[in-house]
Write the structure tokens for this entry.
Amino acid sequence: MDDSTPTRQVTDDPFAAMRVPEYRNLVMGRFCFIMSLRMMSTMVGWWIYELTNDPFAIGLVGLSEVIPALSLALYSGHVIDISEKRKLLLRSVFAYCCAALALLFLTTTFVSDNLSNIHISYCIYGVIFCTGIFRSFAGPSFTAMIANIVPRQYLQNATTWSQGSWLSASVTGHAMGGFLIAMLGTTGTQIVICCLMLTGLTILTRLHPKPAAVDKAQARTWASVKEGLRFVFKTKELLGAFTLDMFAVLFGGVTAMIPVFARDILKTGPMGFGWLNAAIDIGAITVVVLLTFSPLKRAQGKKLLLAVAGFGTCIILFALSKWFVLSFFALMIAGMLDGISVVIRGTVMQLKTPDHMRGRVGSVSSMFVNSSNELGQFESGLASRVFGVVPSVIFGGCMTLAVVIATWIKAPALKKFEY
């Protein structure tokens, strides 16, 4: 059977992938790593807003990371496919640890006594720019390694566990980031982040080497990059899923503005900020757990489109809310719908991608989907300056609904897709 063709040979054991010891190490190491990244993202967003009192400054954090991440996305996919993946992954995570230590130094009283707030902000942007470089290699490396560790009939189960662990790490990191800021301040929070990231790195060293999928001597960089792009653009289900998620996150992502809603609109402080940050991920992980034990059986493409439409509606409700409980539940339901989207998109990518192209397709996915988080963060900051915070979030939710309608009409292959 062609590797690019989905297979219905799947396991009914919900713990099948987790019974593979090396996969457990990958999941646990990634959990610690992602949790530390989410805590760091939460801390940096709050920290920048405290330093500048400007929502647009939060948007610049996203722009600082997305420029290098997008610029290197296609090249990083080529490098992943011609490299020993374990070594590349460990180097990327180690580089992140160095960036976390740099941020820790910037939180110290020595820096605050010798630099103005604006200069500290510039330094933060510089560190985040570097993490964008590291992320372009780390994210797709994690994705590419899954199929090298678990048997093909476990891929759907492994993808669900992978997304579940990612979302669990996100919800824990977002929530703990807000709580730790309230209890320990920025320096104490960053110390915890560094320790957690180093723990993840230690666990990941237990992985076995993963040889290159493509012969380095025969792979020409530009030809390899074009091959990955051609594959995604000719595989309509992949292209539709990536495009839908990219624009939904670009316009509907509200996470960047949560510090503003928490402090200035809902007036909840760091503790409420932590819960609002966690709300989307709480909903998402709830759904992912349910889908682990009861996978979607039919009409997954149509359900993806409906889930993204519901996500946009919840974002509009959040923007209009002046009540913390309503805001929290609007975000949590948005997260539940986003969890459906994440599982379907991740499974489509794993099932449709041949082994020798996983690095390149993962990088294209990163370019379409993951980088849209940071572009969405910049878009949110820019729109908040032009329209105001609440109107900008309403606009984003409306645009998400418009994208779903356009995709429903223009991408019939995705609407009819099943696995």
Remarks:
- DSSP finds 15 helices and no strands in the chain.
- The chain has a mean pLDDT of 80.
